[in-house]
Amino acid sequence: MADLLVVSDAGLYCPAGDFWIDPWRSVPRAVITHAHADHARSGCDRYLCAAPGKLVMRSRLGGTVPIDTLRYGESTTFNGVKVSLHPAGHVLGSAQVRVEHGGQVWVVSGDYKTAPDPTCAPFEPVRCDVFITESTFGLPIYRWPAPEIIAAEINAWWRANQAEGKTSVLLAYALGKAQRLAAMVDPSIGPIHGHGAVMKLVRAYRDSGVRLPPIDAVPARAKRVGQGRALVIAPPSVAAGGWLRVFGEVVVAQASGWMTVRGIRRRRGFGTGFVLSDHADFPGLVSAVEATGARRVLVTHGSSEAFARFLRGRGLEADVLATRFTGEQPDRDDAGDDDDVGAEADPDVPGPDMSRPDDGAAVDSAPRGELP
Ligand SMILES: [Zn+2]
């Protein structure tokens, strides 16, 4: 039986339905899993995404290009191929794409996480014959602490910085992670400020009905914003520029799954890293694959070779699927920030080889909190 989905020059393609999923070139019909720029590129004639993500998609794509939507679980057909979208738990509106035709069901995960997130619908496993899964963190070393533990760590760090009159700067992807962090922290500690790239998505989240605490933009030419009491949420690229000067003395930390790896924290030069990812950790990936009941699994971006090998060891038919998706990157901004901070992820640069985390650097057994 022919494969329902294949990788073409323009991206993941369904020949029977004549549509693409997260194409990396302009195509007539794009079904989009979520609005991060390695998955949602401009230039297509027509888009389909999950309804909760429409405003985020519009803020990413701009203009007036048609964006059709489906509610989670609702279906449509293209040339007799049934397509439905199901929550992926990654960012607001993120979806897995279920494709059914000729007695076969394929599911494309997009990026996903199984941990709870107050800003988006939780991941829902979908039964299928073939599951195309991401594997950004597909090595057993990646295991996330519970989000409430990370929230308590961030609150304690913010308070400690405040006691010394220093502004706390938390670096995070502008789409998804920044809003999730704002929703996780204790807003009674002090004012929260957002970089322009973050504020643009904060507006889209609020307009989509997501509840967030008060977050203020940083006024132009302001001095000593927050008076050493604020928490500032900004994309990682601001660490290298002069943007942080308006806050006076700052303490900078990053929130990312890569903060598990001590060498990556050290290379970024941060005293503190908070282990918080919008991707599944290794146990999350394994449980997600199991829950689909799929006998065949195609693994893409991240530790795909290692994760496919692991799945084969468990008796599944598993292979690597070569795509241009990048997932969360240890040393680059999210591509979603490119409008505002000039940090488009290069789809041609392969992701890090996570079979060698940070060139053999030690991985913490308790990978949180202050560095030695
Ligand atoms: Zn993503």
- The third-level CATH topology of the largest domain is Metallo-beta-lactamase, Chain A
**How confident overall, as mean pLDDT?**
87
Arrangement of strands in the largest sheet: 7-8-9-10-11-18-19
Query: What ions, cofactors and ligands are bound?
Result: zinc ion
By DSSP, the count of extended strands is: 20
List low-pLDDT spans: 334-372
- The CATH H-level superfamily of the largest domain is Ribonuclease Z/Hydroxyacylglutathione hydrolase-like
Query: What does the largest sheet look like?
Result: 7 strands, mixed
Give the overall shape. Answer: globular
Rg, Å, rounded: 20 Å
The percent of residues in helical segments reads 10-25%
Q: Strand pairing plus helix content: what structural class?
A: alpha/beta
Under the CATH scheme, the architecture of the largest domain is 4-Layer Sandwich
Helix-strand string: EEEEEHEEEEEEHEHEHEEEHEHEHEHE
